[in-house]
Amino acid sequence: MTALNRILVITDLDGLHSIRENWLKLEEVALFKNLFNSYDWVDTWARHYAHYIERLLIFTYWREGELCSILPLYINTSNATTAYYISSFEPSHIETCSEAQDFMSLSVDTLPPVRMFKHHLVEQGINNIKMSNLSPRSLFLSWASELPGFREVTKERVRFYIPLLTGMEKLNKKTRRYRKAATKIGMNIRKVSHMEELEVVFSALTKLNSERWIAKGQPAIFVEKTFTDFHKDIARKLLMSNKLSLYYLYKQNNIVAVNYSIVSGNSLIFYQSGNNTSFRPNISPGIILHYAQAIEAQNQGKDMYDFMSSSSASEYKSKLTDTKEDVVSFALYISPLSFFKSRLLETIRTIKRWGVSSVKPSHS
């Protein structure tokens, strides 16, 4: 391995900013990439969630001087020896739920050598890695099968999605009557196209989403300042880079529903929604906007409209598509001792959580 082939571990924002141009260049040409390992997402999250970050732990692999793969991890203030994927494992009331956790990489052949990676992991004082929301088909899982240590891969959730070439019929049929009824009473659908419009519609999203969950007696994620400020910031950046798909349904000046979706590689990902459930007649405005977003994805030449992962396989998403896949979590323990220590710490944290409310805000 030459001096030009190396792993550089980024541990703070200054280091992250120093490789910005290299990261953005890789982002343009990488065969494997998604929104959640993009520079804008990582940088924005790291700034807004700085209070929960002990230090960044972003593994960058350079071959002959060129940045060719990135695995964005960090150390949480609650556990100094465990590395987590960026934008995950935050406190549950403000978690951002990064999906498709994986490498950004130029190709399959430009991943860091596993032994070199482990050397840097140990050098950083890390005993284990924990990740969630991985596809069983992820590049990371196949690469990690060669990592020395004890590995756990566990099914956690289910991800629903619509393959746009073959899977639109169920959503089309489900929404046809509602779309006709909405047109009949003068409802309109629009996609946010400029910054002033974004401010108005994002405000409606947070209001509608919060009212819905509070009415159910459940916590509302958009009442949390850290979460909301992060999304205001990233939504502005996504709009400027044509990666924001924020649709809303309205009648005159009354916004009835908002669908917040994000372009990620060859997918359009549904992230959040806000619906006026008391609007009459009941035209299922949220489902109408799912249809609008799926059509938007088709028009952009995307492969799928992605509903993100869910803890339940029987909720409303299953009524809109028959296509789903398991989502798994991953844990690597460097040694048997690190495995048993991790289990002990997790048991202690679980006991502590018994004394506080563990109700989790909804993310869809």
Automatic annotation (TrEMBL):
Residues 172-317 form the BioF2-like acetyltransferase domain. It comes from the Bacteria. Gene3D superfamilies: 3.40.630.30. InterPro entries: Acyl_CoA_acyltransferase, BioF2-like_GNAT_dom. This is BioF2-like acetyltransferase domain-containing protein.
